[in-house]
UniProtKB/TrEMBL annotation:
Database matches in SMART domains: HECTc
Organism ancestry: Eukaryota, Viridiplantae, Streptophyta, Embryophyta, Tracheophyta
Keyword Magnesium: no
Chain segments annotated as transmembrane: 519-539, 841-864
Boundaries of every HECT domain copy: 718-1121
Originating species: Salix dunnii
Protein name in UniProt: HECT-type E3 ubiquitin transferase
Amino acid sequence: MFFNGDSSTRKRVDLGGRSSKERDRKKLLEQTRLERDRRLWVKQQYAAAVKIQKWFRGRKAVEAEHSTVRVKFHGTYGKCCQNVDRHCFGPDSDFFRQLLFFFNAKNSDDFTILVEACRLLLQNVQDSGDIVSLFAGGDYSTKHALVEYRVKKLAFTCIWAIYQNRKQLKDQLVIMPKDSSITATLLLEAVVLLIDPKLPWACKVVGYLLQRNVFTLFREIVLTGKENMRSDSSIRNASPLERILALVISHVGQKPCICPNIDLQWSFSSQMLTIPLLWQLFPSLKEVFATQGLSQHHINQMAQCMRNNTYVLPKDLSVEYPSYACLLGNMLETTGAALSRADCSFEMAIDIAAVTTFLLEALPPIKSSSPEIRQSSTLDEDDMALPDEMEIVLNKDLEHEIVHAMHSHFLLQLTSVLFGEISMASGSNHGMDDKEVAAIGAACAFLHVAFNTLPVERMMIVLAFRTELVQVLWSFMKQCHENKKWPSLPDQLSYLPGDAPGWLLPLAVFCPVYKSASLPLVVSFPSCANISILIISWFTRYMLMLVDNEEFYEQEKPLSLKDVGCLIVILKQALWQLLWVNPKAHSNSVKPIKNTSAYSGNPTESIKKRVSLVASELLSQLQDWNNRRQFAPSSDFHADVVDDSFISQAVIDGTKANDIMKQAPFLVPFTSRVKIFNSQLLAVRQRQGHHGVFTRNRYRIRRDHILEDAYNQMSALSEEDLRGSIRVSFINEFGVEEAGIDGGGIFKDFMENITQAAFNVQYGLFKETSDHLLYPNPGSGMLHEQHLQFFHFLGTLLAKLLNPLILVEGSKDFPPIICVDHALRPAATYLDMLPIAKSTVLVLVLFSVCYTGTWLIFSVQAMFEGILVDIPFATFFLSKLKKKYNYLNDLPSLDSELYRHLIFLKRYQGDISDLELYFVIVNNEYGELTEEELLPEGRNQRVTNDNVIPFTHLVSNYRLNYQIRLQSSHFMRGFQQLIKKEWIDMFNEHELQVFSFKLTVTAPPRFLFNVAAICLKLLISGSLDGLDIDDLRIHSNYGGGYHSEHYVIEMFWEVLKGFSLENQKKILKFVTGCSRGPLLGFKHLEPLFCIQRAGGTASEEALDRLPTSATCMNLLKLPPYRRFVPDS
């Protein structure tokens, strides 16, 4: 309202008619409630005070009575029991009644009396031999209630006394003392005597002890004694404490024992098995616990508890000793014995797998205890990574106990019991019953978690070659695939939801195990000098056989080739489902600390990621086998739904298609990958622009010192300069610069000459195999002081040739791609048919290293300059570009004769020691013989039937990896200076697809040529019997006055058609630089084939000229000839 000039405050009137007192109603109610609460609190305080006073008065009265009875006891029996005889132990005596009433463990006098009473008890029983009559007199049946009460109270009192005084008795608790009269021994021996199973009250006494949670007391007693054990202490005989534990646990769950079941939280499993390294303290107790009934009872209890997600383990002793890890180690040490028993049940094996899986899930990853031995397929460490604040490092002894307990016998026994009833039915057409599904689920859950947690180098070999795991899992997977129905297995892993795919767990286990079974070798040796003698025993114990090419293809081990083809389809479908249909979320998995699943966050996504990794590794390995010798159509590896939309997404980081190209590129057909790569190159070019790419560098090179001059002038170039255009001028033998302008042709000549010089075996940097394939010379250092620097430079030089980001100066159009479908194997048979590449042509070629071992030097820079190089590298050296390790089956590319000899040794049926072979290898470099040990003290280690397998692989490792390690590493460093690994990771290592415009190859075997010829007819018009001249004519251009109907042109095509195939190729090579036409026809040749008039008018002088060409432009300069004169 507006101000009216009145400054007084008007009284507010409530128009609702309510009184101001009504507005205070809520306040009044709140005050009333507070007063009521205060009165209740005062009443509770008063009641509590009364209760406390009552308790205090009661305790005070009890203490007074204790003192009265204690004084009376001292007067009757003496402070040191000097007035006690055997009658004092009878039912009519007040000796135990009074003692057990006033006894206080913290009172030294009471403790002394109890010890003396136990000594007298042991002495009287030893003298009379009848403890029942000692306690009951003549008639036990009428006085058994009193006797049982006294005995169980006495037994518990002795244990309680030790518990209360454990720190004072710490040196007497665990180890069996030499003097049996010491305090702790007397008390413990008395308990042993009182719970003897032969006594009529044994079950009731043990039951009473269990109800008083005696294992909690024993746990603290053992931990105190364990802390004070000397490091040199040894357990010789069973201590009284160990015998008590053995007697107590033998009652639990055993018939006809009537001991009550107790809460699992206070049981032996929870309280005692969580003590670190328990069996080292009590080896005899381990034997008792390992009996079938006891171990089955406790394991079943733990399994039920863990299935109910009830956490009953005590507090961790320390970060190094988490309770679940201690329980796992102790349990694993005893379950092997239980599994080996003939009466071990299927249900017990299921429980063992469930408990072990649960505990392994909580365990931090354990690294391999053998650093020299590594698995070639490794587990994804990102899945098991822990943040710094949650990092758990187990005690080394505990870690060793767990790893050692997971030995071959345990795996063999567990899988034998689980699969014992279903392995014989593998391959049957009958449906799977619940028991089979349970066995498969339990085994897969256990092994999946074990693979993620424990070192796998031993487990893989045992599972692959000494169990039926591969066959059983494959039978299961095959039936599910054929029936198009996968049973759900979520119960086996608590963190898997019910809608998780049924194939997830089986694939997570099958893929790494089958890969171990199909790999030529699953163990790599980083250095011969670092290999210890332990490798021999490791191979001898675990590696019973290794699959070679003959076994895989001919004997069809471990699966038939038909089944392998089916496996390829299953893996492809699973991968596509994981990576495209339901891709994983990008999340960091964290391992738990206790009683949670193995992965926090989204565990389902973590296991999906794991399956996608192992499945892609296995499918890649199967593609490798298929590349060596085809047993399945290459299209089986490809997804069927790759379209233009997929290709457009593949070049965008973070998309599903891009993830597939990084993890499983083989799912995408070759032609689609080519398009994706082309799009990536375009994107890179657009991002980087042209600056820095066209930097011109000019160098003067002496022809007779081409490698030295090139190294001295170019080795120090920066990456940017190397990516730029390089122009050279040659200096002849007279020191004069040769005439000419380097528009690309001189650089082509330079690259041809330098590669011929550097890779000439006479120069000493490389050697030849028997198939004339090149590899680094192990003795290159004997000829060249700077040999490693030369290898680095050559790697950079070849990377320059391979560099896809180098664009010719002045080029406006990015080169299109002419591709070869990767199904056309072996590629070496048609590589010479590639198009003549020039300034705007990029040719992508499939290279099958398994058959020819030919290095294809592909160059975008060379492409633009018209460079032709011929450098056939051995396949084992080519694998270094992909940072791959060479195995025994790669040895034929170096020395096929040595490979045959090693295979002969592997299959030798006689006594190999008679051959007098030792773990040494002899090198012969330029007449200088040297002997290298394959193992420490290898000169004294004879090759026998037990260690021949590691010998064969050590020899191949030395030849293929070790002796050229320095040369190869420097070559790779130079190569990677320009070529990033991800540029070629899109293409399979066995295809080794690289980029070039021209190349030559060594002649392949004739049967390979025939295979390629049939395949090529699908892609190229015409026949391999001759070039398609008509296609060339249709896609040709003319200049200088020529046109398609010119008489010279008509005559040229008529003459060319009449030439033999050899002469046609010569003409094509003369004009374009390559004797073969494009695989997809001459329309893909850029620039198109062109004929230009040369010589002006058709004068006699012009007609005497010979045709010339410009290969950089696919240009034929043809004089205007008048007629064709055939050769006579």
